[in-house]
Amino acid sequence: MGALSIRNVRKAFNQTEVLKGIDIEIAKGEFLILVGPSGCGKSTLLNLIAGLDNITSGDILIDDRVVNHLSPKDRDIAMVFQSYALYPNMTVRQNIAFGLEMRKIPPAERQASVDRVAQILQIGHLLDRRPSQLSGGQRQRVAMGRAIARNPALFLFDEPLSNLDAKLRVEMRTEIKMLHHRLGTTIVYVTHDQVEAMTLGDKIAVMNAGSVQQFGTPHQLYDDPANLFVAGFMGSPS
Ligand code: ADP
Ligand code: MG
């Protein structure tokens, strides 16, 4: 049994099926990549895991608990999107602490949590600034800080680096990798970038047109692609 189990998950919008029976299973602490071309259903699947939309059929389990009918706040997850969605009139400190305040965490504990996150992400010097006074990379770091502060069982990332320039994207990729090593949290990370998938993933699900074409380690996908789509998409030699 894993930290995340996706069992024969289907999703239709009106009559159109956009997820056609997805099966994925990962263990606690694993970094799962959902990769595939635009429109293949990555965000739809992530939103179902987050509870932002209703499943048509199938089951999603987080830490062996069926969560199909739980609201997002009861799922022990934190989500980071490509747009940072920071509160513009709050400081960085307030942005990070806000979710904890909502969950009625006492002030001293909130403070400790903000300090821990600031140290991990090296944003201690930014705590009293507002989002408008930050660079794109710093904003994304704060958005991650807000997610980390909640100490969730599962992190969900939807193309978090796609708004950043190429150089910063490489930097942040390294940072996310270090963060995963350090925190050991289970991560589901959506991208359409093959390099990001290969460098970050413990396991990769290559998706196309609402189906998983292959699920495996980066090595398995590269050395032994299941079909031409995977070979072409991952850039393997065959
Ligand atoms: P990806 O994230 O891989 O680019 P999405 O999951 O956003 O793809 O979309 C998958 C398919 O589902 C697309 O064809 C998209 O148009 C469709 N879709 C996504 N959300 C909705 C919605 N709320 N209503 C109708 N169709 C949707
Ligand atoms: Mg998407």
TrEMBL record:
Specify the superkingdom. Answer: Bacteria
For this UniProt record, the keywords arranged alphabetically read as follows: ATP-binding, Cell membrane, Membrane, Nucleotide-binding, Sugar transport, Transport
Tell me the ranges covered by the ABC transporter domain, including all copies: 4-234
Q: One GO CC annotation, please?
A: ATP-binding cassette (ABC) transporter complex, substrate-binding subunit-containing
- Does the keyword field hold Membrane? yes
Molecular function in Gene Ontology: ABC-type transporter activity; ATP binding; ATP hydrolysis activity
Q: Any idea what this protein is called?
A: Multiple sugar transport system ATP-binding protein
Q: Which GO terms describe its biological process?
A: carbohydrate transport
Signal peptide location in the record? none
